[in-house]
Each structure stands twice: as C-alpha cells, then as structure tokens.
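Exercise 7. Given the encoded structure of a 237-residue chain, write a plausible sequence.
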C-alpha cells in the first residue's frame, strides 16, 4: 500500500485495481471489513470509507446479511448532478493536461447549431486529456461562445476546472443536456487514450446553460469503455 497517501484512498485504489484486474469478478464477495482491517492494519472506519468509495463509483454493493459484492469492473459516471470532471473526481488522484487551445476559430455548422450561433460565428476551443492514477481515461473537446473569454494560461493548470472558471467570470452553470452513445476509437483517440484502435468508447455530447439561460458550452467527451459505464436512477413521476 502506498504510504504517501491518505490511508483510505490507498486502500480504495488497491482494491479498485484488484477489481479492474479481475482478482475479484462480478458477483464475487469482497473480503469482510474485519479481514480488511487486519490486512491493512487500520481502523474499521478507514476500511468503511475506502469501501464506500467503491460503492459510490458502482464497483461494489453492500447487501445486508450477505456482504459486499462486486457489481462491475468499470467506474460508473453519475447522471444525477451537473459537475465538471474535476469536481466529480476531486477525491481521487486526478491529473490533466491541456492538449490544445484555440482562442478564436470559426464555429462549424454543428457547433453553431448546438450553441445557437449564427453561421461562421467565432468560438474558443480547447482539448484536455484526463488521467486517474496515471491512466488516461478521458479526452475532452470544449467549445465556448466568444462572449466568454478564456486563455491558455487559465486552462493549463493540471487541476483546472472549467466550471470554476465560469463561476469566476460570472456564468453560473445551471443545467445541461447530454447525449450518450457508444463509438469506437479512431487512430488518434486510440493513441491519446492508450487503447487499441476500434476499442469501444463512451461518447458524451453536452450542451450547458447558465442561470440566465445562455448557452455557454458545447462539449464532447470520449471515455474509455473499459474504465467507465453510466449509471442513472429512475423514478416513476
């Protein structure tokens, strides 16, 4: 276990990796909390915190009278709350880098339609690569209308959060529409995400509005299919 990290995060990461690697298969029982206490020489509350992270991400489920069962070898992306990637993963070992930035380019017909802009309107475009535990898991391409001023300097930080920048600039994110589909990695995406060409990816399109109902973001996200799945809770109205 890595000693330079908070104990529960180190335990979580080790158990997560064991699930991803297939040491625990879907349907398997995880070790009981007392056994994990002994294995890692930590308190029960530390073990519970680590296991709860696995529950929150959709890897495992606690079942009363049975134990903790493996549900999936992929992390679940939640659909209940509108968060930036960095906000959604703030508890984890997240890194990112700015892949490209264009302060002003003509918007394509698709971008114009998504942001309700006139033909040949100018937009900014930036691309980021996201890692968790040094594994590339997401490639993002974001377009913003010209009335939102962004710079490479603002976006170049490894922990940059676009939604935080929006808030600083007075654009309070309110709601978004997302479209989700399965695609395969082309040569460029395969190289960026370190997967084989034609590997499955989750492709997410997001259009975001602020509190004044202004369209402030059109984004495309490519998530590694071997690392993510979507989870949504539905209720009868």
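Solution.
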């Amino acid at each position: 276990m890595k000693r330079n990290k908070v104990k529960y995060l180190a335990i979580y990461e080790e158990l997560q990796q064991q699930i991803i690697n297939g040491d625990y298969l879907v349907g398997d029982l995880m070790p009981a909390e007392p056994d994990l206490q002994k294995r890692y020489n930590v308190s029960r509350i530390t073990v519970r915190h680590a296991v709860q992270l696995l529950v929150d991400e959709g890897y495992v489920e606690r079942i009363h009278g049975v134990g903790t069962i493996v549900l999936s070898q992929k992390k679940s992306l939640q659909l209940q709350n509108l968060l930036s990637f960095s906000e959604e993963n703030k508890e984890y070992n997240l890194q990112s880098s700015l892949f490209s930035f264009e302060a002003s380019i003509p918007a394509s017909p698709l971008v114009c339609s998504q942001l309700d802009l006139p033909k040949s309107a100018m937009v900014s475009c930036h691309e980021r690569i996201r890692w968790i535990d040094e594994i590339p898991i997401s490639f993002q391409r974001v377009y913003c209308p010209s009335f939102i001023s962004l710079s490479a300097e603002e976006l170049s930080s490894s922990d940059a959060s676009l939604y935080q920048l929006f808030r600083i600039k007075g654009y309070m994110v309110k709601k978004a529409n997302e479209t989700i589909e399965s695609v395969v990695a082309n040569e460029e995406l395969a190289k960026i995400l370190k997967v084989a060409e034609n590997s499955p990816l989750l492709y997410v399109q997001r259009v975001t509005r602020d509190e004044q109902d202004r369209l402030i973001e059109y984004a495309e996200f490519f998530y590694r299919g071997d690392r993510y799945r979507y989870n949504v809770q539905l209720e009868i109205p």
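Remark. Residues 7-21 form the longest helix (15 residues). Students should compare their own answers with the one above.
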